[in-house]
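Hypothesis: this fold can be encoded by more than one sequence.
Test: take the structure tokens below, design a sequence, compare later.
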């Protein structure tokens, strides 16, 4: 068998005989080279476990699955830690809300507000048309809780300051004399100039006299400290109360004293019983109010 090749460069045709020995040797070498390449490629693939070792590939898959399981477990642990942190934050905020409710109730009672207007036992009424809804992610929820906790803490501080102001205001009112020091009786002599009932001369009366039956309870006109509880010249059995802020009240002509010096009394607390001791014409209470050591007209405090 012959092969004829035509070539312009050679200027003619050449004939190749396939049955010659050298051609047969060359063909055999080419076939052997191809077979060797295929064999080498097979060995390389087999050494990688892709073709000839499926068990090795299965082991690789098993290891990858184990790594993925560990990653999933770690993700679950992180999510659980985040949930635990959020639960703790919610618990703290709930405790703040409980304290705010208790503080609000105290302020309502102190301020004598209508409990129906500020009812801390029920949620405030809310409403409105349905709006667009949206979902929040965990990071968004954390930020919302942080903002809400900051607002609650701020409101708690403001309510605490308000409570202190209300309490201070109430204490100030309690230490300023107001109201009648006796429950029954009538004013028999006012503050100012009058005729002395003993000698008929003119004099300046430095208090108010309440005519009332003997033994009537005398009550503290304001809270304070007992600084005098014994007989005083001209006043008979006398009680004096220092209320602070320069205010002192004096209760004279008592039959019996019910308090001792150094004792703290509250507004409206009984301190003595009406009598007619000292310079007196009959059972009555002589009531004085002193401001910074000077007697002032008790009438404006009594009228309050």
């Amino acid at each position: 068998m012959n092969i004829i090749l035509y070539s312009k460069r050679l200027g003619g045709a050449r004939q190749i005989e396939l049955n010659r020995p050298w051609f047969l040797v060359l063909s055999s070498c080419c076939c052997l080279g191809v077979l060797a390449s295929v064999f080498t490629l097979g060995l390389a693939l087999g050494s990688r476990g892709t073709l000839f070792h499926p068990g090795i590939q299965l082991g690789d898959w098993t290891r990858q699955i184990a790594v993925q399981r560990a990653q999933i477990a770690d993700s679950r642990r992180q999510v659980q830690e985040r949930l635990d942190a959020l639960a703790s934050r919610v618990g703290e905020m709930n405790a703040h809300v409980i304290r705010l409710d208790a503080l609000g109730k105290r302020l309502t009672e102190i301020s004598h507000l209508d409990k129906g207007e500020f009812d801390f036992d029920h949620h405030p009424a809310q409403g409105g048309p349905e709006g667009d809804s949206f979902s929040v992610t965990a990071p968004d929820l954390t930020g919302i809780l942080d903002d809400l906790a900051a607002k609650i803490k701020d409101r708690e501080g403001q309510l605490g300051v308000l409570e202190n102001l209300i309490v201070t205001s109430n204490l100030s009112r309690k230490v300023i004399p107001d109201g009648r020091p006796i429950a029954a009786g009538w004013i028999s002599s006012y503050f100012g100039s009058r005729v002395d009932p003993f000698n008929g001369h003119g004099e300046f009366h430095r208090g108010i006299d309440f005519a009332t039956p003997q033994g009537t309870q005398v009550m503290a006109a304001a809270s304070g400290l007992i600084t005098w509880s014994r007989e005083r010249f001209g006043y008979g059995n006398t009680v004096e109360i220092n209320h602070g802020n320069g205010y002192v009240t004096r209760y004279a002509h008592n039959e019996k004293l019910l308090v001792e010096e150094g004792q703290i009394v509250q507004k409206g607390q009984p301190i003595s019983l009406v009598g007619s001791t000292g310079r007196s014409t009959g059972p009555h209470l002589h009531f004085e109010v002193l401001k910074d050591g000077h007697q002032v007209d008790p009438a404006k405090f009594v009228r309050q």
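The helical segments are 21-47, 54-110, 138-174, 299-303. Residues 183 and 217 are 8 Å apart (CA to CA).
Hypothesis status: open.
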